[in-house]
């Protein structure tokens, strides 16, 4: 079996607003083979940039477009292809968008392998640690503290046992920050885990002050309060407070995660499989496991990301919870023919061959950017 083509399909809503919501657009990757098996992947990045990286012509020996590097390869040789893509894009890559684009192809290769061998991806990755994963409703803060509380009540009443709020208007001032968390706790109640995503909005000293205040509301973790390059700040924060510090969604490679864990001293390692790929995400998870750290997913995209995330979480021993975006977007809610659902606080790991996700072609056609 050989790879014959790689399709990079840009999907977008008619209007993309400037907010922290990755469900407004996406890049779907299809890897085609001469055996008639097609794998599906997704990239969480700038779709225009990632599409260009996949489709770019050769510049020189270590500056190839990814499609050039993988066509003609055996799709079952996933580690080999990952290395070929990494080294073939090393001049402009190694981090960020190049690895993001690689991840879409990598996920699609795992989908092909599962379909070819008749097995779900998590089993091929050596997993089976989880058959279903506890889900937290992942949403943005309301425009006001009061609205935030109302949102919390809604997801508690839907059966979620954990809820995460993130980004704006967090970071405006101390009074607002504390009020947002206070009302979030009131909304979800005392029996639901409350997670807070600050959205890169503070310096280390401010984050320490906020984390200490937030302890009064029993938050489960404080996510990404600092700029991702502020590793010394993360270390100061982690050592100064009892609240778990979570981070990692901005990273894409083992080297970056090692720095974040060893120098930044974070408590919870977050990996987005559509920014790192399944192959690299699993490597990161076991590096975290060696350090006795939990590794969880970041997922604020479509059911392709969510399905791949479930397979990833099921394939490693140190995962325990699933980020489940509740954004109201047709790309998140309808791109899969059979959308993944939360039931009684959990989401089941797909058990069909490959990722277990089939695209809704009507949604692809409606939102495809030509």
The fold-level CATH name of the largest domain is TIM Barrel
How much helix, percentage-wise, in residues? 40-55%
Strand coverage percent: 15-25%
Number of helices: 14
- The CATH level-2 architecture of the largest domain is identified as Alpha-Beta Barrel
CATH homology group of the largest domain = Enolase-like C-terminal domain
* Total tally of structural domains: 2
As a whole number of angstroms, the C-alpha radius of gyration is 20 Å
Give a quick rundown of the structure.
By secondary structure, the protein is an alpha/beta fold. It has 14 helices and twelve strands.
How would you describe what is shown here?
This protein is α/β, with parallel strands linked by helices and 370 residues long. It has 14 helices and 12 strands. The chain has helices at 47-55, 66-70, 78-88, 96-117, 121-124, 145-157, 174-188, 204-214, 231-240, 254-262, 273-290, 303-314, 330-334, 361-367; strands spanning 3-12, 25-33, 38-43, 132-140, 162-166, 193-197, 219-223, 244-247, 268-271, 295-297, 322-325, 346-348. The strands form 2 sheets. Strands 4, 5, 6, 7, 8, 9, 10, 11 and 12 form a 9-stranded mixed β-sheet that branches. A 3-stranded antiparallel β-sheet has the order 1-2-3. It is globular, with a radius of gyration of 20 Å.
How are the SSEs placed, and which strands pair?
Blueprint: E1 3-12, E2 25-33, E3 38-43, H1 47-55, H2 66-70, H3 78-88, H4 96-117, H5 121-124, E4 132-140, H6 145-157, E5 162-166, H7 174-188, E6 193-197, H8 204-214, E7 219-223, H9 231-240, E8 244-247, H10 254-262, E9 268-271, H11 273-290, E10 295-297, H12 303-314, E11 322-325, H13 330-334, E12 346-348, H14 361-367
Parallel strand pairs: 4-5, 4-11, 5-6, 6-7, 7-8, 8-9, 9-10
Antiparallel strand pairs: 1-2, 2-3, 4-12
Helix pairs in contact: 1-4, 3-4, 4-11, 6-7, 8-9, 10-11, 11-12
